[in-house]
Every structure is written in structure tokens, then in C-alpha cells.
Design brief:
It is a single chain. The chain has one domain. It is about 35% helix and about 20% strand. It is built from two helices and nine strands, in the order αβββαββββββ. Strand 6 and strand 7 form a beta hairpin.
């Protein structure tokens, strides 16, 4: 007695495999875009929190000593590359040890506002984090991306190079 085989080969066709690969690719692209947005929002929240810390510290200093910290301009925060938060043809801003010393009473641990500078596409200018400007009695800070929400009472200072949002908070 001969046995006839009614079973046939089972498997996926090339078209089915291609469809699955395309769907996986689309899902991966959506995930990557969403993840990048989360990272940017987290970095911006870190800058805003740090600026808020320094804003309160400068106000406290002013209340205690009846004057603004007269240490000149300087970067606010820690971990800037080369101790600079602003560089390029428009000038440089660096960590100011005297400013840090004046505010040390009110800022026990310097927050990290940026670990890299962002090229703003204007000459070789780079920006990140925050700067205390003694002459104008304000804090200028930079958020990654354009048209970001400056929060904490900061006003929109403009988009620089289509890369960063400049925010200004008057003290």
C-alpha cells in the first residue's frame, strides 16, 4: 500500500517577509523620533531647573547684601566643555570663579546645565546652558530646539541659527 503525502511545504513567502520588515522599519523610525524628542525635553527641563536655582540664588544674594553679585559676567552651572558656555566671534563667556564664590552660600551644588555646546549656524558661534549678565541684570539661557517654552518667567529672546531658543529672565 502506497501512502500519498498530502502535506505541503509551509513557510512565508518573500512578499510576506518584506511586509514584516517594512512594518518593523516604520515602527523603529517612529520610536527613534519619539526618543529624540524626549531627550531634548529632558535637557531643556534640566536647564530650566538650573536657571531657576540660580535665579533664586541671585535674588537671595540681592536681598541679603542689597546689591547684585558684582563679579561680572559668567556661566552658571557646571560641566561646560572648556569651562565655556558661549563661544565664537560674538565673544566668549566662561565660568567665573568670583561669581561662583559669591553665590556659593546660596547654591550648595552647582547644577549641570549643559555638557556640550551647540553650533548655532552663525559663524563659529556656539551656545549652551546659561549666562549671568551683570551689566543688564539678567540671565540669558539656551534651550535646544527652536520656539521652546522659556518657562520660569523667562521671555523669548529669539531663535539662534535655527538650533537653539534664547530665553532671557530679568532679575
Amino acid at each position: 500500500m502506497l501512502q500519498t503525502s498530502t502535506s505541503r511545504r509551509r513557510g512565508f513567502t518573500i512578499v510576506e517577509l518584506l511586509i514584516v520588515i517594512v512594518v518593523i522599519g516604520i515602527l523603529a523610525a517612529i520610536t527613534i523620533v519619539a526618543f529624540n524628542g524626549v531627550q531634548q525635553r529632558a535637557r531643556n527641563a534640566q536647564v530650566i531647573a538650573g536657571v531657576n536655582t540660580y535665579y533664586k540664588a541671585i535674588l537671595s544674594y540681592t536681598n541679603v547684601y542689597n546689591t547684585y553679585p558684582e563679579s561680572g559676567n559668567g556661566c552658571l552651572g557646571a560641566s561646560y566643555p572648556g569651562d565655556q558656555c558661549w563661544s565664537g566671534t560674538s565673544g566668549n563667556r566662561s565660568i567665573n570663579a568670583a561669581l561662583d564664590a559669591n553665590l556659593a552660600e546660596f547654591v550648595k551644588v552647582k547644577p549641570v546645565l549643559a555638557t556640550s555646546l551647540l553650533p548655532i549656524g552663525i559663524g563659529n558661534n556656539m551656545r549652551a546652558g546659561a549666562v549671568y549678565d551683570f551689566a543688564t541684570k539678567r540671565i540669558v539661557y539656551y534651550l535646544q530646539g527652536i520656539n521652546q517654552d522659556c518657562s520660569i518667567g523667562g521671555s523669548f529672546g529669539g531663535n539662534e541659527g535655527g538650533v537653539v531658543t534664547q530665553c532671557v529672565i530679568a532679575i
